[in-house]
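New to this. Look over this protein:
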Amino acid sequence: MTGNVVAVSSNGAYSFTKPNRPGIRLLAGLGVEGDVHAGATVKHRSRVRQDPSQPNLRQVHLMHAELFEELAAAGFPVEPGQLGENVTTRGVDLLALPVGALLHLGAEAVVEVTGLRNPCAQIDDFRPGLLKQVVHRTDDGTLVRRAGIMGVVRSGGEIRPGDAVSVTLPPAPHRPLDRV
């Protein structure tokens, strides 16, 4: 499975959206250099309130550009970075990856997939009704989350739009993604 980086985004302040950048640097064990969510321990406000010492399994947020096309067709135009992701990709089925998959981004960076993003009500503040587009239940009641995946940085490096993305799967049996 291979693809490419469409956009990279970061923000040093808490904000729902993250501006696009010409490049970002991933730091091993920390996340995106200069991003508010970088760190070895949790940085997302709700997680900090629960237990600020827990490990940060949400150092990097990745989303697939194909989702933006689906959302636009449903009347919800969204651009890279607007949903708070750090890396927007194309050509890799991020949501189908198992826990522990390694994403090789650019020449050096490696992100280990930890789970699914669990979007909150802030997404409806950005675009009313958008939450139901990225989180819904199937006919049998299964909850489906489509707002990207989260990971931790195993090897640092620069990432820029146009960089290659490749995947190394962990040994079987594979564990499906769940929210982190």
